[in-house]
Write a structure and sequence with these properties.
The chain has 256 residues and is mainly α. The chain has one domain. It is 90% helix and 0% strand. It has helices spanning 5-33, 38-61, 68-133, 140-182, 184-191, 196-255. It is rod-shaped, with a radius of gyration of 36 Å. It starts with a helix and ends with a helix. 14% of the residues are buried.
Length: 256
Amino acid sequence: MKMSKVYIRLLAITALAIAFTGASFSIAGLAKLFAGASTAVAIMAAALEIAKLVVTGFVYRYWGHIHKVMRVYLCFAVVTLIGITSIGIYGFLSNAYQISSLGMKTEELKIESMRSENKRIEERVAEINRFIDEVPRSRISKKFEFQKKYEPEIKRLRKQSDAIVAQIDAAKVKILKTHTEVGPASFLADALHSDVDTVVKYLILLFVLVFDPLAVCLVFCLNLAIRLREKYRGNETKISEHSISTPVDHRFRKAS
Protein backbone atom coordinates (compact mmCIF):
# COMPACT_ATOMS: atom_id res chain seq x y z
CA MET A 1 0.00 0.00 0.00
CA LYS A 2 1.55 3.28 -1.16
CA MET A 3 1.34 6.14 1.34
CA SER A 4 0.04 9.31 -0.32
CA LYS A 5 2.31 12.36 -0.16
CA VAL A 6 -0.74 14.56 0.49
CA TYR A 7 -1.74 12.42 3.48
CA ILE A 8 1.79 12.63 4.90
CA ARG A 9 1.64 16.41 4.60
CA LEU A 10 -1.76 16.43 6.28
CA LEU A 11 -0.35 14.36 9.17
CA ALA A 12 2.61 16.73 9.48
CA ILE A 13 0.39 19.85 9.51
CA THR A 14 -2.01 18.30 12.07
CA ALA A 15 0.80 17.12 14.35
CA LEU A 16 2.53 20.50 14.22
CA ALA A 17 -0.75 22.39 14.77
CA ILE A 18 -1.69 20.38 17.88
CA ALA A 19 1.87 20.38 19.20
CA PHE A 20 2.23 24.14 18.65
CA THR A 21 -1.14 24.92 20.25
CA GLY A 22 -0.47 22.66 23.24
CA ALA A 23 3.02 24.11 23.63
CA SER A 24 1.66 27.68 23.54
CA PHE A 25 -0.93 26.91 26.24
CA SER A 26 1.64 25.06 28.32
CA ILE A 27 4.28 27.81 28.06
CA ALA A 28 1.68 30.45 29.04
CA GLY A 29 0.54 28.31 32.00
CA LEU A 30 4.06 27.58 33.23
CA ALA A 31 5.05 31.24 32.86
CA LYS A 32 2.15 32.22 35.13
CA LEU A 33 3.10 29.47 37.58
CA PHE A 34 6.70 30.75 37.79
CA ALA A 35 5.89 34.44 37.42
CA GLY A 36 9.18 35.47 39.03
CA ALA A 37 11.14 34.24 35.98
CA SER A 38 8.42 34.00 33.34
CA THR A 39 10.66 34.79 30.34
CA ALA A 40 13.31 32.22 31.31
CA VAL A 41 10.65 29.59 31.97
CA ALA A 42 8.99 30.32 28.61
CA ILE A 43 12.32 29.88 26.76
CA MET A 44 13.08 26.65 28.64
CA ALA A 45 9.59 25.24 28.04
CA ALA A 46 9.74 26.10 24.30
CA ALA A 47 13.13 24.35 23.94
CA LEU A 48 11.84 21.27 25.77
CA GLU A 49 8.71 21.16 23.57
CA ILE A 50 10.82 21.13 20.41
CA ALA A 51 13.17 18.53 21.91
CA LYS A 52 10.22 16.30 22.84
CA LEU A 53 8.94 16.14 19.24
CA VAL A 54 12.43 15.56 17.79
CA VAL A 55 13.23 12.84 20.35
CA THR A 56 9.87 11.13 19.69
CA GLY A 57 10.63 10.88 15.97
CA PHE A 58 14.22 9.80 16.62
CA VAL A 59 13.23 7.04 19.06
CA TYR A 60 10.66 5.67 16.63
CA ARG A 61 12.95 5.65 13.58
CA TYR A 62 16.15 4.40 15.26
CA TRP A 63 14.80 2.25 18.10
CA GLY A 64 16.93 -0.74 17.16
CA HIS A 65 20.13 1.34 16.99
CA ILE A 66 19.79 3.00 20.41
CA HIS A 67 21.44 1.57 23.53
CA LYS A 68 19.00 0.13 26.09
CA VAL A 69 19.92 2.65 28.79
CA MET A 70 19.48 5.52 26.32
CA ARG A 71 16.14 4.07 25.21
CA VAL A 72 14.85 4.00 28.77
CA TYR A 73 16.03 7.53 29.44
CA LEU A 74 14.59 8.97 26.21
CA CYS A 75 11.21 7.28 26.79
CA PHE A 76 11.20 8.56 30.37
CA ALA A 77 12.08 12.07 29.15
CA VAL A 78 9.24 12.06 26.58
CA VAL A 79 6.66 10.82 29.13
CA THR A 80 7.87 13.37 31.71
CA LEU A 81 7.67 16.19 29.17
CA ILE A 82 4.13 15.11 28.26
CA GLY A 83 3.29 15.38 31.97
CA ILE A 84 4.90 18.85 32.25
CA THR A 85 3.10 20.08 29.14
CA SER A 86 -0.20 18.72 30.47
CA ILE A 87 0.35 20.51 33.80
CA GLY A 88 1.04 23.75 31.92
CA ILE A 89 -2.11 23.34 29.80
CA TYR A 90 -4.17 22.60 32.92
CA GLY A 91 -2.80 25.73 34.60
CA PHE A 92 -3.52 27.88 31.55
CA LEU A 93 -7.11 26.66 31.12
CA SER A 94 -7.80 26.84 34.88
CA ASN A 95 -6.54 30.43 34.96
CA ALA A 96 -8.70 31.33 31.95
CA TYR A 97 -11.78 29.89 33.67
CA GLN A 98 -11.00 31.66 36.94
CA ILE A 99 -10.76 34.99 35.12
CA SER A 100 -14.10 34.44 33.38
CA SER A 101 -15.82 33.27 36.58
CA LEU A 102 -14.21 35.86 38.86
CA GLY A 103 -17.16 38.24 38.49
CA MET A 104 -19.62 35.48 39.36
CA LYS A 105 -17.70 34.44 42.49
CA THR A 106 -17.33 38.07 43.59
CA GLU A 107 -21.07 38.64 43.25
CA GLU A 108 -21.81 35.40 45.12
CA LEU A 109 -19.63 36.56 48.02
CA LYS A 110 -21.40 39.94 47.99
CA ILE A 111 -24.80 38.22 48.06
CA GLU A 112 -23.72 36.03 50.96
CA SER A 113 -22.48 39.08 52.88
CA MET A 114 -25.67 41.05 52.15
CA ARG A 115 -27.87 38.13 53.19
CA SER A 116 -26.02 37.93 56.51
CA GLU A 117 -26.49 41.69 57.00
CA ASN A 118 -30.18 41.45 56.12
CA LYS A 119 -30.63 38.53 58.51
CA ARG A 120 -29.04 40.58 61.29
CA ILE A 121 -31.43 43.48 60.58
CA GLU A 122 -34.46 41.18 60.55
CA GLU A 123 -33.37 39.64 63.85
CA ARG A 124 -33.07 43.13 65.38
CA VAL A 125 -36.58 44.08 64.16
CA ALA A 126 -37.98 40.80 65.52
CA GLU A 127 -36.19 41.41 68.82
CA ILE A 128 -37.78 44.90 69.17
CA ASN A 129 -41.24 43.60 68.29
CA ARG A 130 -40.86 40.74 70.73
CA PHE A 131 -39.81 43.16 73.47
CA ILE A 132 -42.89 45.35 72.82
CA ASP A 133 -45.22 42.32 72.66
CA GLU A 134 -43.96 41.11 76.02
CA VAL A 135 -45.23 44.26 77.73
CA PRO A 136 -48.40 43.25 79.67
CA ARG A 137 -51.76 44.51 78.42
CA SER A 138 -52.33 46.10 81.79
CA ARG A 139 -49.53 48.51 80.93
CA ILE A 140 -50.95 49.65 77.60
CA SER A 141 -49.55 53.16 77.96
CA LYS A 142 -46.06 51.74 78.43
CA LYS A 143 -46.54 49.60 75.30
CA PHE A 144 -47.52 52.67 73.27
CA GLU A 145 -44.55 54.51 74.67
CA PHE A 146 -42.19 51.74 73.54
CA GLN A 147 -43.85 51.57 70.12
CA LYS A 148 -43.39 55.30 69.66
CA LYS A 149 -39.82 55.11 70.92
CA TYR A 150 -38.69 52.24 68.65
CA GLU A 151 -40.80 53.14 65.60
CA PRO A 152 -38.07 55.32 63.95
CA GLU A 153 -35.48 52.57 64.43
CA ILE A 154 -37.82 49.93 62.98
CA LYS A 155 -38.51 52.14 59.95
CA ARG A 156 -34.79 52.75 59.45
CA LEU A 157 -33.99 49.03 59.73
CA ARG A 158 -36.77 48.07 57.29
CA LYS A 159 -35.53 50.68 54.84
CA GLN A 160 -32.05 49.19 55.09
CA SER A 161 -33.50 45.73 54.56
CA ASP A 162 -35.36 46.83 51.41
CA ALA A 163 -32.16 48.42 50.04
CA ILE A 164 -30.20 45.23 50.71
CA VAL A 165 -32.86 43.08 49.00
CA ALA A 166 -32.65 45.39 45.94
CA GLN A 167 -28.85 45.02 45.91
CA ILE A 168 -29.17 41.23 46.16
CA ASP A 169 -31.51 41.21 43.14
CA ALA A 170 -29.05 43.36 41.15
CA ALA A 171 -26.19 41.01 42.08
CA LYS A 172 -28.27 38.01 40.93
CA VAL A 173 -28.74 39.68 37.53
CA LYS A 174 -24.94 40.12 37.26
CA ILE A 175 -24.46 36.45 38.14
CA LEU A 176 -26.85 35.47 35.33
CA LYS A 177 -24.76 37.54 32.89
CA THR A 178 -21.58 35.81 34.08
CA HIS A 179 -23.28 32.42 33.68
CA THR A 180 -23.82 33.36 30.03
CA GLU A 181 -20.12 34.21 29.67
CA VAL A 182 -19.07 30.90 31.23
CA GLY A 183 -21.11 29.27 28.48
CA PRO A 184 -22.27 25.66 28.16
CA ALA A 185 -20.54 24.66 31.42
CA SER A 186 -23.37 26.17 33.48
CA PHE A 187 -26.04 24.27 31.51
CA LEU A 188 -23.97 21.08 31.71
CA ALA A 189 -23.64 21.58 35.47
CA ASP A 190 -27.42 21.92 35.77
CA ALA A 191 -27.94 18.76 33.69
CA LEU A 192 -25.47 16.79 35.84
CA HIS A 193 -26.82 18.29 39.10
CA SER A 194 -23.35 19.56 39.96
CA ASP A 195 -21.64 22.90 40.41
CA VAL A 196 -19.92 24.71 37.53
CA ASP A 197 -16.43 24.50 39.08
CA THR A 198 -16.53 20.68 39.27
CA VAL A 199 -17.80 20.32 35.70
CA VAL A 200 -15.14 22.70 34.34
CA LYS A 201 -12.42 20.85 36.27
CA TYR A 202 -13.34 17.55 34.59
CA LEU A 203 -13.64 19.23 31.18
CA ILE A 204 -10.12 20.63 31.56
CA LEU A 205 -8.84 17.17 32.58
CA LEU A 206 -10.38 15.70 29.41
CA PHE A 207 -8.65 18.36 27.31
CA VAL A 208 -5.34 17.62 29.04
CA LEU A 209 -5.65 13.84 28.55
CA VAL A 210 -6.05 14.11 24.77
CA PHE A 211 -4.00 17.22 23.94
CA ASP A 212 -0.27 16.52 24.24
CA PRO A 213 -0.49 12.69 24.11
CA LEU A 214 -2.32 13.08 20.78
CA ALA A 215 0.45 15.36 19.47
CA VAL A 216 3.10 12.75 20.38
CA CYS A 217 1.03 9.95 18.80
CA LEU A 218 0.68 12.00 15.62
CA VAL A 219 4.49 12.40 15.49
CA PHE A 220 4.72 8.58 15.69
CA CYS A 221 2.13 8.27 12.90
CA LEU A 222 3.99 10.80 10.76
CA ASN A 223 7.27 8.91 11.10
CA LEU A 224 5.51 5.63 10.34
CA ALA A 225 3.97 7.14 7.21
CA ILE A 226 7.35 8.48 6.06
CA ARG A 227 9.02 5.10 6.64
CA LEU A 228 6.29 3.29 4.72
CA ARG A 229 6.61 5.72 1.83
CA GLU A 230 10.41 5.33 1.81
CA LYS A 231 10.03 1.54 1.91
CA TYR A 232 7.56 1.33 -0.97
CA ARG A 233 9.48 3.89 -3.01
CA GLY A 234 12.58 1.74 -2.53
CA ASN A 235 10.70 -1.37 -3.67
CA GLU A 236 9.34 0.47 -6.73
CA THR A 237 12.85 1.68 -7.64
CA LYS A 238 14.24 -1.88 -7.43
CA ILE A 239 11.40 -3.26 -9.58
CA SER A 240 11.85 -0.55 -12.22
CA GLU A 241 15.62 -1.11 -12.33
CA HIS A 242 15.05 -4.85 -12.66
CA SER A 243 12.52 -4.42 -15.47
CA ILE A 244 14.96 -2.16 -17.38
CA SER A 245 18.00 -4.40 -16.92
CA THR A 246 16.31 -7.72 -17.78
CA PRO A 247 15.92 -7.18 -21.58
CA VAL A 248 19.55 -6.04 -21.80
CA ASP A 249 20.65 -9.24 -20.07
CA HIS A 250 18.65 -11.31 -22.58
CA ARG A 251 20.28 -9.49 -25.47
CA PHE A 252 23.73 -10.14 -24.01
CA ARG A 253 22.86 -13.82 -23.58
CA LYS A 254 21.69 -14.12 -27.21
CA ALA A 255 24.78 -12.36 -28.45
CA SER A 256 26.97 -14.76 -26.49
